[in-house]
Amino acid sequence: MAKPNKFFGNSPNPAVALPAWGMLIMALALVFLPSLRTAALILYAADWLALGIAALTAKRKQSLVNYWGSCVPIVVAIVLLNFCYRRYTTPWMRNIFLVALGFVLLTLPMLLIAEKQVPNMRAGREKYWLRAVALTMLVFLAAISWAAASNIAFDQSAGSLRTACITEKWRNSSRTGGQYHIRVAVEGLAESLNLDVGRKEYRRLSEGDAVTATAYDGFWGAPYYTWDYPQEEAD
Fold first, then answer.
1. 162 DSSP β-pair partners
2. Which of 94, 121, 187, 219 is most buried (CB neighbours < 10 A)?
3. What is the pLDDT along the chain (235 residues), one digit of tens a residue?
4. Pick from 216, 233, 100: which is nearest to 225 by CA?
C-alpha cells in the first residue's frame, strides 16, 4: 500500500515549526526593518541551531522537508535573504564558502540524524536518502545566503570609490518583468563585475558610460561593491 504524502497532512510539531517560522520573521525584519538587520541575522542563525536541537531532541519525530509548516517558511526566508541583498555584488570568495561551511557543520549533522529517526509512517513517500539530499541542499543554500548577507550587514568599513566603465548591459526576461544587469570594468580590478540595476537606471545607462563603484572590505574579508552615478552627474 502506498504511503500518503504528508506535506499537507498532519500539523507540524511546534518544537520544530517555531524555529522555522522564526527564520521567516527574521528575514522579514531584514527587508522591512533595515535598522535591525544585524540582530535579525544573528537570530536567524540562532534559529537554525535551535531547529537542529529541537529536531534532535523532540519526542515526536517529524520530517523537516515533508511538512509545509517547517519547510515553507525556511524556503521563503532564504528567498527573502537573497532578495534583500541583490543590489550588492560580492564576487565568489573563499571566505564566504568557509563561513557557510562552518554554518553547515554546526547544523546539518543534527538535522540529518533527526531525519533518520523519523518513523516511516511520518516520512511520507520519499526514502531517507532523498530527504537527506533535499535537507542538505536547503541548509547549504541557507548557509551561503547567510554568509553573504552577514558579510555585508556586519561590515563597518568606510568604502573606497573607484572609477568604472560600463562594458555591457543586458536584460533577462521573465513573466514577472525581468531583471536588468550591467557589466563594468573597475579601476584596479582584473575582472569585470556584474551589477543588478533597476529598470529606470537600465534605460538611462549606456555602454561606455562612466559610473562610480564603491568597494567595501566585507566583515568576513570578502569585498563587495555598490555602484552610483558619477558625483557631478548625481548632483
1. 213
2. 219
3. 444 444 444 566 787 889 999 999 999 998 888 889 999 999 999 999 999 999 989 888 888 887 778 889 999 999 998 887 776 777 667 889 999 999 999 999 999 999 898 887 666 667 888 889 999 999 999 999 999 999 999 999 988 888 899 999 988 876 556 788 889 998 888 888 888 888 888 888 889 899 888 889 999 998 888 888 765 554 4
4. 216
Report how far residue 184's alpha carbon sits from residue 164's, in angstroms, rounded to the nearest whole number.
Answer: 6
Other CB atoms within a 10 A radius of the CB of residue 133 amount to 12
d(CA 79, CA 209): 32
Whole-angstrom CA distances from 58 to 17, 34, 83, 148, 209 are 11, 34, 33, 31, 58
